[in-house]
Design a protein that fits this description.
Rossmann fold, 2 domains, eight-stranded mixed beta sheet, two-stranded parallel ribbon, globular
Amino acid sequence: MKSLLEYVAARATGDLVSWKNQVAAAEKFNSTLADVEAIMLEGGWLPARYQRNRDMLNISQQLQLFRSTVVVIGCGGLGGYVIEQLARLGVGRIVAVDADVFEEHNLNRQLLSSPRLLGHSKALAAKARVNEINPAVTLVAVEKYFDRQNGPELVAGSQVVVDAVDNVATRKILDAVCREADIPLVHGAIAGWYGQVSTQFPGDTVMEKLYGQADDSPGMEKQLGNPSFTPGAAASFQVAEVCKILVVEGEVLRHRKLHLDLLAMETAEVSF
């Protein structure tokens, strides 16, 4: 691929390669946009779309993001924002798992929803959205409910799993599957003005401490509702956790839960 790198280098501005030239390289060398992006990053060239990442992430870390797979369980309120931010960040492969279709009550908060998509698959909407905002990212849409049988296969090969589900029963299954697979799990939950985020690494029991005594009834969001802003706030914290895990930077919310109170505009931390 030396000639591809030479092609890129001849058209770069400093170490930045524009989207236009990335597309042109893919067409000229009969490659996918994902393959071109990988070759560029491996050669030390930064896709210009990520130039505002560079003061916090170096090219090596951007490459690490691109080589990573993140599984997102749920493409609704939390999941839609998580997927959007992961794709814009440059995570190379996202597996989006959700068997649901959009309903009218989703329209107030779910980023991927629109009146046009009522009755349409949430997972397929996630795929279409990622193809639109960052076609170099591969999104695998899985139109299935996450359960004990398919869980191990769905998370296999991933570096991080993101909890964007809305019920305790599925969270307990997700907890068990991730612990057995030795994969970090970034948890998020929302209800009304409130949210919480935590990260569980292999060997930890954070989810058990949070939900071990809870029954399998619908989550608190069914009682407190969800406005448009709470999912976006909690999802941003989740994506920050994912980024830190993948690039091995900073401190994650391990053995602690961050509670968000958007009514009082306060955060509180609980250690486990």
